[in-house]
Model the fold of this input.
Amino acid sequence: MESAQRKMIVGGNWKSNGTVQSIKDLVNDVLNKAEFDTERVEVIVAPISIHIASVKALLKENVKVAAQNVSETGNGAFTGEISAEQLKDFDVQWTYIGHSERRNVFGETDAQVANKVAKAQSVGLNAIVCIGEHLEQREAGETNMVLKKMLDAFKDSVKDWSKIVIAYEPVWAIGTGKTASPAIAEETHKYIRSWVKENVSEEVANGMRIQYGGSVTAATAPELISQPNIDGFLVGGASLKAEFKDIITAMNNSESTA
Ligand code: PGA
Done:
Protein backbone atom coordinates (compact mmCIF):
# COMPACT_ATOMS: atom_id res chain seq x y z
CA MET A 1 0.00 0.00 0.00
CA GLU A 2 1.34 3.41 -0.93
CA SER A 3 0.97 6.44 1.32
CA ALA A 4 -1.85 7.35 -1.08
CA GLN A 5 -3.98 4.80 0.72
CA ARG A 6 -3.27 5.93 4.26
CA LYS A 7 -5.71 8.48 5.56
CA MET A 8 -3.83 11.42 7.00
CA ILE A 9 -4.36 12.11 10.67
CA VAL A 10 -3.74 15.25 12.69
CA GLY A 11 -4.11 15.51 16.43
CA GLY A 12 -4.29 18.72 18.39
CA ASN A 13 -2.78 18.35 21.83
CA TRP A 14 -4.07 21.17 23.98
CA LYS A 15 -2.14 19.92 27.01
CA SER A 16 -3.08 21.63 30.26
CA ASN A 17 -4.22 24.81 28.56
CA GLY A 18 -7.42 26.76 28.13
CA THR A 19 -10.34 28.26 29.99
CA VAL A 20 -14.00 27.53 29.45
CA GLN A 21 -14.23 30.58 27.24
CA SER A 22 -10.96 30.18 25.30
CA ILE A 23 -11.76 26.57 24.48
CA LYS A 24 -15.26 27.49 23.34
CA ASP A 25 -13.78 30.17 21.09
CA LEU A 26 -11.19 27.76 19.71
CA VAL A 27 -13.88 25.24 18.78
CA ASN A 28 -16.26 27.77 17.27
CA ASP A 29 -13.75 30.02 15.53
CA VAL A 30 -11.13 27.53 14.41
CA LEU A 31 -12.21 23.90 14.38
CA ASN A 32 -15.78 24.36 13.30
CA LYS A 33 -14.57 26.56 10.45
CA ALA A 34 -11.95 24.13 9.19
CA GLU A 35 -12.89 22.69 5.83
CA PHE A 36 -11.43 19.36 4.84
CA ASP A 37 -12.36 16.09 3.23
CA THR A 38 -12.86 13.51 5.96
CA GLU A 39 -11.95 10.81 3.45
CA ARG A 40 -8.47 12.34 3.25
CA VAL A 41 -7.84 13.79 6.68
CA GLU A 42 -8.87 12.69 10.14
CA VAL A 43 -8.83 15.47 12.75
CA ILE A 44 -8.71 14.84 16.49
CA VAL A 45 -8.34 17.23 19.40
CA ALA A 46 -7.46 16.50 23.00
CA PRO A 47 -8.75 18.92 25.62
CA ILE A 48 -8.20 18.54 29.35
CA SER A 49 -10.59 15.92 30.65
CA ILE A 50 -13.08 18.31 32.28
CA HIS A 51 -13.57 19.95 28.88
CA ILE A 52 -14.15 16.74 26.94
CA ALA A 53 -17.95 16.83 27.29
CA SER A 54 -18.38 20.45 26.31
CA VAL A 55 -15.95 20.19 23.41
CA LYS A 56 -17.73 17.08 22.12
CA ALA A 57 -21.05 18.87 22.31
CA LEU A 58 -19.79 21.96 20.49
CA LEU A 59 -17.72 20.34 17.77
CA LYS A 60 -19.03 19.51 14.35
CA GLU A 61 -19.10 15.79 13.54
CA ASN A 62 -15.96 15.92 11.39
CA VAL A 63 -13.60 16.43 14.34
CA LYS A 64 -13.16 13.77 17.01
CA VAL A 65 -12.18 14.16 20.64
CA ALA A 66 -9.30 12.33 22.33
CA ALA A 67 -8.19 11.98 25.91
CA GLN A 68 -4.63 13.10 26.59
CA ASN A 69 -3.97 10.12 28.80
CA VAL A 70 -5.64 6.95 30.03
CA SER A 71 -5.30 5.00 33.24
CA GLU A 72 -3.29 1.82 33.33
CA THR A 73 -5.75 0.43 35.84
CA GLY A 74 -9.41 -0.36 35.39
CA ASN A 75 -12.26 1.23 37.31
CA GLY A 76 -12.02 1.31 41.08
CA ALA A 77 -10.09 2.86 43.91
CA PHE A 78 -7.62 4.79 41.74
CA THR A 79 -8.13 8.43 42.67
CA GLY A 80 -7.55 10.87 39.86
CA GLU A 81 -7.49 8.32 37.07
CA ILE A 82 -9.77 7.96 34.05
CA SER A 83 -10.09 4.43 32.75
CA ALA A 84 -10.31 3.17 29.20
CA GLU A 85 -13.76 1.77 30.01
CA GLN A 86 -14.92 5.20 31.15
CA LEU A 87 -13.65 6.87 28.00
CA LYS A 88 -15.42 4.28 25.92
CA ASP A 89 -18.61 4.66 27.96
CA PHE A 90 -18.42 8.41 27.32
CA ASP A 91 -18.07 7.70 23.59
CA VAL A 92 -14.51 9.02 23.45
CA GLN A 93 -12.89 6.93 20.71
CA TRP A 94 -9.30 8.08 21.02
CA THR A 95 -6.57 8.50 23.59
CA TYR A 96 -2.95 9.58 23.48
CA ILE A 97 -0.54 7.32 25.32
CA GLY A 98 3.03 7.92 26.43
CA HIS A 99 3.29 11.54 25.41
CA SER A 100 6.77 12.93 26.01
CA GLU A 101 5.51 15.03 28.93
CA ARG A 102 3.89 11.99 30.53
CA ARG A 103 7.18 10.13 30.19
CA ASN A 104 9.60 12.91 31.05
CA VAL A 105 7.68 15.13 33.48
CA PHE A 106 5.61 12.47 35.22
CA GLY A 107 8.05 9.59 34.92
CA GLU A 108 5.80 7.28 32.95
CA THR A 109 7.74 4.13 32.09
CA ASP A 110 7.69 1.88 29.03
CA ALA A 111 5.94 -0.72 31.19
CA GLN A 112 3.17 1.74 32.07
CA VAL A 113 2.80 2.70 28.44
CA ALA A 114 2.41 -1.00 27.61
CA ASN A 115 -0.28 -1.39 30.29
CA LYS A 116 -2.14 1.64 28.96
CA VAL A 117 -2.02 0.31 25.42
CA ALA A 118 -3.39 -3.01 26.68
CA LYS A 119 -6.24 -1.23 28.47
CA ALA A 120 -7.09 0.83 25.40
CA GLN A 121 -7.06 -2.29 23.26
CA SER A 122 -9.25 -4.20 25.69
CA VAL A 123 -12.15 -1.83 25.03
CA GLY A 124 -11.39 -1.04 21.39
CA LEU A 125 -10.14 2.48 22.02
CA ASN A 126 -7.93 4.00 19.31
CA ALA A 127 -4.55 5.03 20.68
CA ILE A 128 -1.92 7.43 19.46
CA VAL A 129 1.23 6.08 21.06
CA CYS A 130 4.05 8.60 21.30
CA ILE A 131 7.75 7.84 21.06
CA GLY A 132 10.81 10.03 20.65
CA GLU A 133 14.44 10.51 21.54
CA HIS A 134 16.25 13.16 23.54
CA LEU A 135 18.76 15.45 21.86
CA GLU A 136 21.77 13.72 23.43
CA GLN A 137 20.49 10.39 22.16
CA ARG A 138 20.14 11.72 18.62
CA GLU A 139 23.59 13.28 18.80
CA ALA A 140 25.03 10.01 20.02
CA GLY A 141 23.47 8.17 17.07
CA GLU A 142 21.10 6.26 19.34
CA THR A 143 17.77 7.40 17.90
CA ASN A 144 16.71 4.14 16.27
CA MET A 145 17.79 2.12 19.27
CA VAL A 146 15.77 4.34 21.62
CA LEU A 147 12.70 4.16 19.40
CA LYS A 148 13.06 0.41 19.02
CA LYS A 149 13.10 0.00 22.79
CA MET A 150 9.92 2.07 23.12
CA LEU A 151 8.19 0.16 20.32
CA ASP A 152 9.32 -3.23 21.61
CA ALA A 153 7.92 -2.33 25.02
CA PHE A 154 4.28 -2.07 23.93
CA LYS A 155 4.29 -4.49 21.00
CA ASP A 156 2.85 -7.40 22.91
CA SER A 157 0.00 -5.26 24.29
CA VAL A 158 -1.44 -4.84 20.82
CA LYS A 159 -4.01 -7.25 19.46
CA ASP A 160 -5.51 -4.92 16.85
CA TRP A 161 -2.94 -2.75 15.09
CA SER A 162 -5.64 -0.93 13.13
CA LYS A 163 -6.40 0.90 16.38
CA ILE A 164 -2.86 2.17 16.80
CA VAL A 165 -1.28 5.32 15.39
CA ILE A 166 2.37 6.00 16.16
CA ALA A 167 3.44 9.57 16.87
CA TYR A 168 7.13 10.26 16.42
CA GLU A 169 7.94 13.24 18.58
CA PRO A 170 11.61 14.02 19.15
CA VAL A 171 11.81 15.48 22.65
CA TRP A 172 14.16 18.21 21.43
CA ALA A 173 11.52 19.44 18.98
CA ILE A 174 8.55 19.63 21.34
CA GLY A 175 7.67 23.17 22.32
CA THR A 176 11.11 24.42 21.31
CA GLY A 177 10.35 25.97 17.94
CA LYS A 178 12.91 23.53 16.44
CA THR A 179 10.94 21.40 14.00
CA ALA A 180 12.80 18.33 12.74
CA SER A 181 13.80 18.84 9.13
CA PRO A 182 11.67 16.95 6.63
CA ALA A 183 14.70 14.77 5.83
CA ILE A 184 15.32 13.84 9.47
CA ALA A 185 11.65 13.21 10.16
CA GLU A 186 11.24 11.13 6.98
CA GLU A 187 14.32 9.03 7.72
CA THR A 188 13.07 8.31 11.24
CA HIS A 189 9.52 7.53 10.11
CA LYS A 190 11.00 5.15 7.57
CA TYR A 191 12.84 3.38 10.37
CA ILE A 192 9.62 3.16 12.43
CA ARG A 193 7.77 1.68 9.46
CA SER A 194 10.54 -0.85 8.95
CA TRP A 195 10.24 -1.81 12.63
CA VAL A 196 6.51 -2.44 12.12
CA LYS A 197 7.22 -4.51 9.04
CA GLU A 198 9.77 -6.62 10.84
CA ASN A 199 7.88 -7.01 14.09
CA VAL A 200 4.27 -7.14 12.98
CA SER A 201 3.74 -7.56 9.24
CA GLU A 202 4.21 -5.87 5.92
CA GLU A 203 0.49 -5.26 5.64
CA VAL A 204 0.31 -3.55 9.03
CA ALA A 205 3.45 -1.54 8.20
CA ASN A 206 1.95 -0.30 4.97
CA GLY A 207 -1.25 0.76 6.67
CA MET A 208 0.34 2.23 9.82
CA ARG A 209 -0.18 5.94 10.19
CA ILE A 210 2.89 7.65 11.62
CA GLN A 211 2.48 11.21 12.83
CA TYR A 212 5.27 13.69 13.30
CA GLY A 213 5.12 15.99 16.32
CA GLY A 214 7.37 18.76 17.57
CA SER A 215 6.91 22.44 16.79
CA VAL A 216 4.76 21.82 13.73
CA THR A 217 3.45 25.08 12.28
CA ALA A 218 1.48 26.11 9.23
CA ALA A 219 4.83 27.05 7.68
CA THR A 220 6.53 23.69 8.28
CA ALA A 221 3.53 21.42 7.69
CA PRO A 222 3.41 21.38 3.85
CA GLU A 223 6.94 20.09 3.28
CA LEU A 224 6.72 17.60 6.12
CA ILE A 225 3.44 16.15 4.91
CA SER A 226 4.82 15.73 1.40
CA GLN A 227 7.29 13.11 2.73
CA PRO A 228 6.15 9.59 1.84
CA ASN A 229 6.32 8.20 5.37
CA ILE A 230 4.78 11.15 7.21
CA ASP A 231 1.05 10.61 7.53
CA GLY A 232 0.10 13.48 9.77
CA PHE A 233 0.97 15.50 12.83
CA LEU A 234 0.59 15.78 16.53
CA VAL A 235 0.40 19.50 17.17
CA GLY A 236 0.78 21.23 20.51
CA GLY A 237 1.24 25.00 20.57
CA ALA A 238 -0.14 25.67 17.08
CA SER A 239 -3.28 23.65 17.82
CA LEU A 240 -4.37 26.36 20.25
CA LYS A 241 -4.31 28.97 17.52
CA ALA A 242 -6.14 29.80 14.30
CA GLU A 243 -3.05 28.37 12.62
CA PHE A 244 -4.35 24.86 13.29
CA LYS A 245 -6.90 25.42 10.54
CA ASP A 246 -4.05 26.21 8.13
CA ILE A 247 -2.27 23.00 9.10
CA ILE A 248 -5.45 21.02 8.35
CA THR A 249 -5.80 22.85 5.04
CA ALA A 250 -2.16 22.14 4.14
CA MET A 251 -2.80 18.44 4.72
CA ASN A 252 -6.06 18.47 2.84
CA ASN A 253 -4.41 20.12 -0.15
CA SER A 254 -1.20 18.14 -0.06
CA GLU A 255 -0.20 16.20 -3.13
CA SER A 256 1.35 13.19 -1.44
CA THR A 257 -1.98 11.50 -0.95
CA ALA A 258 -3.76 12.99 -3.93
P1 PGA B 1 4.45 21.39 20.09
O1 PGA B 1 3.97 20.12 20.93
O2 PGA B 1 3.73 21.35 18.78
O3 PGA B 1 4.05 22.58 20.94
O4 PGA B 1 5.91 21.26 19.92
C1 PGA B 1 3.81 18.88 20.30
C2 PGA B 1 3.34 17.87 21.31
O5 PGA B 1 3.70 17.96 22.48
O6 PGA B 1 2.57 16.94 20.97
User: Anything to note?
Assistant: Residues 110 and 149 are 8 Å apart (CA to CA). The longest helix spans residues 182-199.
